[in-house]
Amino acid sequence: MSSQQTSIGLLGGSFDPVHNGHLSIAESFLESDLLDELWILLTPDPPHKIDRAQADYQLRLEMLQAAFKDFDNVNVSDIEKQLPQPSYTIQTLEYLKDQYPDNTFYLCIGGDSLRDFKQWKNWSKILDHTDLLVAQRPSTDNNKIDNFLKDHVHYVDHDPIKISSTTIRDAVANGDDISGLVPSSVKGIIENEQLYRESNDE
Fold first, then answer.
1. Staple 200 to which of 29, 52, 154, 165, CB 3.0 to 4.6 Å?
2. Cα separations (Å) of 13 from 33, 66, 151?
3. Superfamily grouping for domain 7-192
4. How far apart are CA 38 and CA 32, in angstroms?
5. pLDDT band at 4 (very low <50, low <70, confident <90, very high)
């Protein structure tokens, strides 16, 4: 990752597995006028997803790297693996701001995450370090968030693809074809490693 001053979007998640919806939202963020780079942050153990076993971290990282290998200005990062667990966004931001004090960071999220944002740990402190870049359809009602949040939100036009990692895991467990839902390289890893053969509900 470059240390020179730049505007960086942070897109985090467990990516279990990464799918075409993730690629689509990444493209929308990159097409905005605000970002020079997009960093994909793989979360080892999301605090809100402790109720089910996840695929091995290294395999999830391998799938991410395969999915984004042809993207310009995208860095797949394992930085959260190096930080104390569990992985909280505030901790990651404080570390990145300390390491890259001259850079501008935007936390990249979807509309659903914006509605739940005040449930995040230390959400107000997060806004001391970053504004929110929210991928959302233009027709979505943006007036339902309070004025304090509005001052920290920038919207990016995005038409979500209705795919979830849960749907893909269930499809694999049921023996269904996931072509068209994930990049072919990711499908190959899932098949070679025999991932998601047993259904796990979130």
1. 52
2. 23, 16, 24
3. HUPs (3.40.50.620)
4. 11
5. low
Question: What residues are paired with 131 via a beta bridge?
Answer: 106
Phi, psi of 25 (to 5 degrees): -70, -35
Q: What angle do CA 152, 117, 167 make, to 5 degrees?
A: 125
Q: How far is CA 105 from CA 18, 39, 119, 141, 181, in A?
A: 23, 10, 21, 25, 30
* pLDDT recorded at residue 201: 44
On the 0-12 / 13-18 / 19+ scale of CB atoms within 10 A, 126 is buried
Whole-number pLDDT of residue 149: 87
Residue ranges with strand state E in 43-190: 74-77, 104-110, 131-136, 153-157
Range 68-74 contact pairs with CB under 8 angstroms and sequence separation of 24 or more: 68/23, 68/26, 68/40, 69/185, 71/23, 71/26, 71/30, 71/38, 72/30, 73/30, 73/35, 73/36, 73/37, 73/38, 74/26, 74/30, 74/37, 74/38, 74/39, 74/40
| 143-202: pLDDT as tens digits | 567 778 889 999 999 988 889 999 999 999 999 999 999 999 999 999 999 999 975 443
Between 201 and 26, the higher pLDDT residue: 26
Mean pLDDT in residue range 112-127: 92
| Chain centre to alpha carbon of residue 76 | 10
